[in-house]
Amino acid sequence: MKNFPFISTSQSLLLFRITLPLFFVAHAVTRIANGTIERFAGYLSTKGFFATTAMVWGITVYEIIGGIALALGYYTKYLSLGFILMLIMGNVIIHYQNGWWVGEHGEGGMEYSCALILGLIVIASTAKDNSK
Known about the structure:
Elements: H1 9-33, H2 37-46, H3 52-72, H4 76-95, H5 111-125
Helix pairs in contact: 1-3, 1-5, 2-3, 3-4, 4-5
Protein backbone atom coordinates (compact mmCIF):
# COMPACT_ATOMS: atom_id res chain seq x y z
CA MET A 1 0.00 0.00 0.00
CA LYS A 2 1.26 3.47 -0.89
CA ASN A 3 1.77 5.97 1.85
CA PHE A 4 -0.80 8.61 2.51
CA PRO A 5 -1.47 11.11 0.88
CA PHE A 6 -0.67 9.09 -2.25
CA ILE A 7 0.71 12.07 -4.18
CA SER A 8 4.11 13.71 -4.30
CA THR A 9 5.10 16.97 -2.65
CA SER A 10 5.07 18.78 -5.99
CA GLN A 11 1.61 17.41 -6.76
CA SER A 12 0.42 18.48 -3.30
CA LEU A 13 1.72 22.00 -3.83
CA LEU A 14 0.05 22.17 -7.24
CA LEU A 15 -3.25 21.02 -5.76
CA PHE A 16 -2.88 23.59 -2.97
CA ARG A 17 -2.00 26.39 -5.40
CA ILE A 18 -5.06 25.60 -7.48
CA THR A 19 -7.60 25.14 -4.69
CA LEU A 20 -6.74 27.82 -2.12
CA PRO A 21 -7.33 30.74 -4.54
CA LEU A 22 -10.69 29.26 -5.46
CA PHE A 23 -11.86 30.02 -1.90
CA PHE A 24 -11.42 33.72 -2.76
CA VAL A 25 -13.31 33.27 -6.03
CA ALA A 26 -16.16 31.49 -4.23
CA HIS A 27 -16.25 34.19 -1.55
CA ALA A 28 -16.55 36.95 -4.16
CA VAL A 29 -19.12 35.13 -6.28
CA THR A 30 -21.20 34.51 -3.16
CA ARG A 31 -21.01 38.21 -2.30
CA ILE A 32 -22.40 39.02 -5.76
CA ALA A 33 -25.01 36.24 -5.75
CA ASN A 34 -26.28 37.12 -2.28
CA GLY A 35 -26.36 40.83 -3.06
CA THR A 36 -24.25 41.78 -0.05
CA ILE A 37 -21.93 44.26 -1.76
CA GLU A 38 -23.93 47.26 -0.52
CA ARG A 39 -24.12 45.80 3.00
CA PHE A 40 -20.33 45.34 3.06
CA ALA A 41 -19.90 48.85 1.66
CA GLY A 42 -22.20 50.21 4.38
CA TYR A 43 -20.15 48.47 7.06
CA LEU A 44 -16.92 50.00 5.68
CA SER A 45 -18.60 53.42 5.70
CA THR A 46 -19.20 53.05 9.44
CA LYS A 47 -15.44 52.52 9.81
CA GLY A 48 -14.70 55.87 8.15
CA PHE A 49 -13.92 54.73 4.62
CA PHE A 50 -15.26 56.56 1.58
CA ALA A 51 -16.20 55.37 -1.92
CA THR A 52 -16.97 52.06 -0.26
CA THR A 53 -19.14 50.60 -3.01
CA ALA A 54 -16.29 51.06 -5.48
CA MET A 55 -13.88 49.66 -2.89
CA VAL A 56 -15.99 46.53 -2.36
CA TRP A 57 -16.37 46.01 -6.09
CA GLY A 58 -12.59 46.36 -6.42
CA ILE A 59 -12.07 43.73 -3.72
CA THR A 60 -14.63 41.46 -5.37
CA VAL A 61 -13.09 41.77 -8.82
CA TYR A 62 -9.60 41.18 -7.38
CA GLU A 63 -10.83 38.05 -5.61
CA ILE A 64 -12.33 36.68 -8.83
CA ILE A 65 -9.69 37.64 -11.40
CA GLY A 66 -6.76 37.37 -8.99
CA GLY A 67 -8.02 34.06 -7.64
CA ILE A 68 -8.35 32.54 -11.10
CA ALA A 69 -4.96 33.90 -12.19
CA LEU A 70 -3.30 32.60 -9.03
CA ALA A 71 -4.90 29.17 -9.48
CA LEU A 72 -3.48 29.12 -13.02
CA GLY A 73 -0.04 30.09 -11.74
CA TYR A 74 0.15 33.64 -13.07
CA TYR A 75 2.01 36.32 -11.08
CA THR A 76 1.99 34.06 -8.06
CA LYS A 77 4.09 36.14 -5.68
CA TYR A 78 2.40 39.44 -6.56
CA LEU A 79 -1.13 38.09 -6.34
CA SER A 80 -0.33 36.26 -3.09
CA LEU A 81 1.01 39.50 -1.63
CA GLY A 82 -2.17 41.33 -2.68
CA PHE A 83 -4.35 38.71 -1.03
CA ILE A 84 -2.20 38.74 2.10
CA LEU A 85 -2.51 42.52 2.40
CA MET A 86 -6.26 42.28 1.86
CA LEU A 87 -6.54 39.62 4.58
CA ILE A 88 -4.44 41.65 7.02
CA MET A 89 -6.69 44.66 6.45
CA GLY A 90 -9.75 42.46 6.92
CA ASN A 91 -8.33 41.22 10.20
CA VAL A 92 -7.61 44.75 11.40
CA ILE A 93 -10.92 46.27 10.27
CA ILE A 94 -13.37 43.41 10.79
CA HIS A 95 -12.11 40.32 12.60
CA TYR A 96 -9.70 41.52 15.31
CA GLN A 97 -12.51 42.91 17.45
CA ASN A 98 -14.04 39.41 17.53
CA GLY A 99 -10.88 37.68 18.77
CA TRP A 100 -9.12 34.65 17.37
CA TRP A 101 -11.81 32.01 16.80
CA VAL A 102 -14.00 32.26 13.73
CA GLY A 103 -16.89 30.39 15.31
CA GLU A 104 -19.84 28.91 13.55
CA HIS A 105 -21.38 30.33 10.39
CA GLY A 106 -18.30 32.37 9.48
CA GLU A 107 -18.84 35.07 12.06
CA GLY A 108 -16.07 36.03 14.37
CA GLY A 109 -12.35 36.20 14.59
CA MET A 110 -9.15 35.96 12.67
CA GLU A 111 -8.20 32.26 12.58
CA TYR A 112 -9.43 31.52 9.06
CA SER A 113 -7.78 34.61 7.58
CA CYS A 114 -4.50 33.75 9.31
CA ALA A 115 -4.66 30.21 7.90
CA LEU A 116 -5.20 31.67 4.42
CA ILE A 117 -2.23 34.01 4.92
CA LEU A 118 0.00 31.07 5.84
CA GLY A 119 -1.25 29.18 2.78
CA LEU A 120 -0.51 32.15 0.54
CA ILE A 121 3.00 32.35 1.97
CA VAL A 122 3.51 28.69 1.04
CA ILE A 123 2.19 29.34 -2.48
CA ALA A 124 4.40 32.41 -2.95
CA SER A 125 7.50 30.73 -1.56
CA THR A 126 7.16 27.73 -3.88
CA ALA A 127 6.44 29.76 -7.03
CA LYS A 128 8.70 28.85 -9.91
CA ASP A 129 7.78 31.48 -12.46
CA ASN A 130 5.94 34.71 -11.80
CA SER A 131 6.01 36.04 -15.32
CA LYS A 132 3.66 33.55 -16.95
